[in-house]
Amino acid sequence: MKTIHEPLAPKNELLAKSQQHSSIIASILLLIIIIAVTAPLAGEFFLSAQFKDDVRRLYLNREKVSEKPFSYQQLDGLPVPVQKYFKHVLPEGRPAIQSVRMLQKGQFKTDIKKDWIDIEGEQYVTTQKPGFVWKGKTYMFSARDMYLKGKGKLVVDLFSFYRLQKGEGPKYDEGELLRWLGESVCYPTNLLPGDNLVWFPIDDESAQLIYYYKGISLSYNILFNSKNEIERMETQRYMADKNKEKWVNKLSSYQLRDGILVPTYIEAGWQLKDGYFPYAKFQITIIEYNKFEMF
């Protein structure tokens, strides 16, 4: 009995199919490469546009600050270390600061148990009506932290296009307002007493600051060093949207900027039962006042 065999496909036909298959794979790989390259660029462009819009809304929402220059008479009745602080950092006759813009570089931890990573920051602030917009960027993620129109928000994106975290609500409203108030040491006319801000004595080296805004009452215990500079600020803040813990800001490396003495190094951390855990260390490289445009 003879076995009947199927005719074999011509060699050129097999070669054509192989080339077609290789072409499809190459096209898929090329498409993956294009997406991998363009997606982060598109994400970066989109986030940059959002950041610019946030800054625009921040400045549109500002209120005019009193043009009355700073006078030592404004310090009458304040706790002694507070009076010494203002006389040390603010020259008499200094107009109130209306807005701030600053650039920062430093290190950050995404969790108190994780390693430090390098980060660069860009921030814009208004004073009379509390507000700020901050953008931080690392090699892996970008973040936007803000307090706008009485609302706080934190947004974190991986490689500029994948949303890792978005936080907002009453806890963030309070937390971001706390950040704005704590960073007022970088624009100290904002810490002068007024309708919403009151100082109370504690001892010869510390005082309590209380601030009221939109039904929220905030307080800091503030420690002054022997140079009459604010060295440490402590308050209670929600940690990772959970319970409140002691939040600490450490300030140092005071330098003159536009005639005002301000800290150029800021460290933030949590004082927990297990000890002190810093998570942010920033060096302010540029700080400028009363300029209503972006860098």
TrEMBL record:
Pfam families in the record: DUF6920 (PF21900)
The answer to keyword Membrane applying to this record is: yes
Q: Which residues cross the membrane?
A: 24-47
Q: Which domain of life is it from?
A: Bacteria
Give UniProt keywords alphabetically: Membrane, Transmembrane, Transmembrane helix
What the entry lists under InterPro entries is as follows: DUF6920
Establish whether keyword Membrane is in the entry. Answer: yes
Q: What is this protein called?
A: Uncharacterized protein
